[in-house]
Design the sequence.
């Protein structure tokens, strides 16, 4: 599981107040759901990445890495501003 995903969901649940009305069982179900959702998403990303690595040309892979990093950098600058 991605640690930042855990931090994000914890902040979201606490900040929005979703966790206020949950009892222990409901909280455990919510955490289990978040875990399964995160695990499945990470698995899909890993599978797509593995397939893409073997099927896409090296040049496309290099451009995709640069574009992806620029997008993340742009979002980070947007958040800071």
Sequence:
């Amino acid at each position: 599981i991605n640690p930042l995903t855990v931090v994000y969901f914890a902040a979201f649940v606490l900040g929005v107040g979703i966790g206020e009305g949950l009892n222990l069982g409901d909280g455990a179900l919510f955490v289990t759901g978040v875990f399964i959702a995160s695990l499945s998403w990470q698995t899909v990303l890993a599978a797509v990445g593995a397939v893409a690595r073997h099927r896409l040309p090296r040049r496309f892979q290099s451009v995709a890495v640069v574009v992806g990093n620029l997008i993340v950098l742009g979002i980070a600058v947007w958040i800071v501003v």
